[in-house]
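Interim report to the steering committee. The following record documents the input for Yip1 domain-containing protein (230 residues).
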Amino acid sequence: MATLSNALVNVFVAPKSLFDDLKEAKGWGWIALFFSTILYALVTYWLYSGMSSEWIVEQQIAQMGDVSPAEADQARSFMQDSAPYTAPIAAVSIVLATLLMNALYSGYLKLVSRTDEFSYGDWYSFSLWAMMPMFFNALGLALLILLADSPDVPLNFANYASLNQLLLNLPIDHALYNWAEAFNLFSLWGIVVAAAGLQSWAKMKPITAYVLAGLPFMTIMGTWLLIALF
């Protein structure tokens, strides 16, 4: 019999078994929503709420690149008003963006699965479970916050698992900086989980499941890469 404790373990060690169990426990999506999204939003809130408004403003100015002193002063005036709200804005944005992206991904999965056994709501729950690697992303970020010498850390601190921070170390003015910062390795883990789910729910062969699970992410990142390069 499927149990919630087994589900929380299997999503990381035996994802195909998880999705086999979810066929009979489709209402568990809210658990995945908490561990994959709400928890990450709360840790992000913690990250930004510890920063001083002055630090946030100067970090944002630095990210603007080569601007004139007049332009920097004008931007600083606006940013000083919004800086105290950075933490709640970031947390709410994470939740809303995740819900929207999952809404689109769920529709895509229902389309490519070619099965009527599962409803759109079932696939939405599926997509939330596929995001569970973000639980470890949140734990890693929380640990880094605890170990930081000061709460005033770089604004991109939350992207510690990005391709840029792990491997490339591109400067902020590099054409591929934003792309490399957005390429989070936990997203690849999520694709692995989703592929296991497609093998269970849609009876796909492994190669087909991996291709279809990762196609939206790779299409977005591939298009972004080409635009940045050319």
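The CA atoms of residues 77 and 101 lie 33 Å apart. The committee is asked to note this result when reviewing the revised timeline.
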